Amino acid sequence: MSTAQETKPVNLLSRLIDTGAHQKLLAFASLVALLIGFSIASPNFMQTSNMIAILQATSVNGVLAVAVTLVIITGGIDLSVGTLMTFCAVIAGVVLTYAGLPLPLGVVAAIAAGAFCGLCSGTFVAKMKIPPFIATLGMMLILKGLSLVISGTRPIYFNDTPGFDQISRGSLIGEIFPALPIPNGVLILFIVALSVAYILGRTVLGRYTFALGSNEEAVRLSGVNTDAWKMAIYSLAGGICGVAGILIASRLNSAQPALGLGYELEAIAAVVIGGTSLSGGRGTILGTLIGALIMAVLTNGLRVLSVAQEWQTVVTGAIIILAVYADMVRRKQAK
Amino acid sequence: MATLVKMTGIEKRFPGVHALKNVQFELEAGEVHALMGENGAGKSTLMKILSGIYQRDGGDLQVNGQSVTIDSPRAAQDLGIGIIHQELSLMNDLTAAQNIFIGREPRKSFGRLDEAALNARAAEIFASMNLNLEPKANVGSLTIAKQQMVEIAKALSYDSRVLIMDEPTAALNDAEIAELFVIINRLKSEGVGIVYISHKMDELKRISDRVTVMRDGEYVATVGAADTPIAKIIAMMVGREVKEEPLEVPNLSNAEVSLEVSDLNRGREIRDVGFSVRKGEILGFAGLMGAGRTEVARAIFGADPKDSGVIRVHGQEVSISRPSDAVKAGIGYLSEDRKHFGLATGMNVRDNIALASMDQFTSWGGVLDDEAMRKTAQDYIRKLGIRTPSDTQEVRLLSGGNQQKAVIAKWLLRDCDILIFDEPTRGIDVGAKSEIYKLLESLAAEGKTIIVISSELPEIMRLSHRIAVMCEGRLTGILPGGKDTTQEMIMQLATQREAAMQPDGGTA
Q1: Dihedral sign (CA B9, B12, B17, B20)
Q2: Any idea what DSSP says for residue A57?
Q3: What does the buried/exposed string (b/e) look like for A269-294 if buried means 16 or more CB atoms within 10 Å of the residue's CB?
Q4: A214: pLDDT strictly greater than 80
Q5: How confident is the model over B334-356, as a mean pLDDT?
Q6: Among A151, B5, B382, B490, whose Cα sits 20 to 30 Å from the Cα of B210?
Q7: For testing the chain A interface, which of B300, B304, B324 should be mutated: the one with the most A CBs within 10 Å?
Q8: What pLDDT sits at residue B244?
Q9: 3-state DSSP helix/strand/coil percent for chain B, to nearest 5?
Q10: Residue A1 touches chain B, beta carbons under 8 Å
Q11: Is the pTM of this model over 0.80?
């Protein structure tokens, strides 16, 4: 039908704004501004070693943020990612140190434990209709407790598993390009991020993730088994937390059962700064990565400038409020 | 008797709609004045202007003989105009007294609430209504009828001389209605003027003094309730002529029965509904708001649970407990509320068309074939004439008619051969309407089975090969389509309340 072409041509700019790219642009610009600002303020900031330290610091929070991005796009929230990460690290410790099994089994066990816990959260949310905030708050406490119980409240060290610390701290890239000693943890973050970005953009699971956040009832009335898909998304997020568990355990060469609480809020902050809407339906992995980087640059830069730790926290909080406020202003203008 | 309200030449426009055209209305003290008209006739809009929710674009509004501007609900309250909405707006967890005085609670020093005074004043109002109700009762624990009384008490607490009731009996049973009418009669004897909006013809005769009929946003006439036969009022309500070309009803007596529903029940909303539709047939569902048509559709589709009911598709009994079961059986449901139930509004046209058929575009590992999706979407955009700059346009930016076409494309792609359209043209402008009608007709001609639920009688008559009419959850009759069926015949069935069906039941 000829009328299909009659309407005005697609306005590229308005499409960019519609798809949330504007927020990503804003986040990216803030990141660049922060980098420039800190480099001017301190000559120590723009050093290769410091940049690598920033990337290393981003890796765990970044992986968790990617996991929580998935859940947030469905219109939910996952508060259990931090303690789930610790739980998975403890499971790896049990398999590798207590049972003495080979390294790959430990990795698989950690990821499987994560996916299973995610499936539990997903079941509470999808089948039992418990609000995600409550369901994952419960999971957060359950997992924190279980980590302490299983480990006997003591750290589990990986000294008997050669190569375990290399998962995060080694550098495959550095071996090939000695000038670029990027740690494996960062490499893993990028692999996870790329995979999830692919899943979100190119697979049914990804399409339903956005659709659920956009209008769950319409999806259900389209004959889609929304409960099953939602459970799958929570499981995937859980499995990614398992990867984060391996990363942090490798970096510390130990599973620290008391760790984990508070990581979920840092991850959610990164997601929000990256422009993913807490009401669901919109969000990007690239945005989340930039959000995680902003948090890491901020922490690192303030430390380089010798700003007291207490004040770093205050600034981080202010940044989160600013980022979301900018998003609100933009959305009001879009209407 | 004094004239409380006089509205003349009222005009109201909304974007794209001329909602009220030169409308007049008058209310005397101590009368019950019924306001009648089909859905969309403009009754509620008119009353929202009187109660300060909307502003009039033209005309004059006098209260107690003075021209006034009512620019907020608060201003209406100050003039003694109270409205009781169709949907009760009470806070269930507060007490009756707390609800009545919300926002103007009696206070003691330092902003402390004077709960005793609050309850005493509520008790006073209940006493003046001769109503036996505990001010401290939690509203959530009261029956709907009692909640309605609390709403009335709230309206009276503003010293209302004018009380607007929008379908006050919609959720009440006969005993409760009688209770309400006692209160209305008492208010009337005290000189309160009551505007009574209702679809129920028998109530009109029981309670009202005068009737004003509206149609398509225009004033039709004001007549006495006692000396005007119901048939005449119905004729005034539906009096517009159907301009469309006459409908041709195909002979389908040899066509296969594609959908058969029997013994469908759910609570008070669906009672013993059974019908069948043939391949290529358009079955219309007529009835007033709340008659249970949407409920029937949602129960068949598995969107809501049902108490009982057998559904046969192409002769085979199917068990449908959720929408995905219905879709597997080839049934698609197009909701009246596209934004909430039909479209993922934040997503683009392509994704919305593919939403119910993702597995067709999925290869190994769940990877989507976006190229195939694009081709298919563009196919349907062309076939159905969806006006969109591209298949990646977000659906929320499309017009209502084109959004509806996107939803139709979704179900056609899913190969659904039984399509249930709930208010297919709601929110769609006149030009696009006839396009949707033609689309439905060509779908039927292709052998699809079409069910159309509509509150607009002309739409039902324009499309339906047969017309099923519902009232209060029951199927009150199935009429043949075509010119021999008149709007009056449909309205008779649509207002055929249970009491009137029982030979010795009568009205109270």
Answers
A1: negative
A2: H
A3: bbbbbbbbbeebbbbbbbbbbbbbbb
A4: yes
A5: 86
A6: B490
A7: B324
A8: 52
A9: 35, 25, 35
A10: yes
A11: no
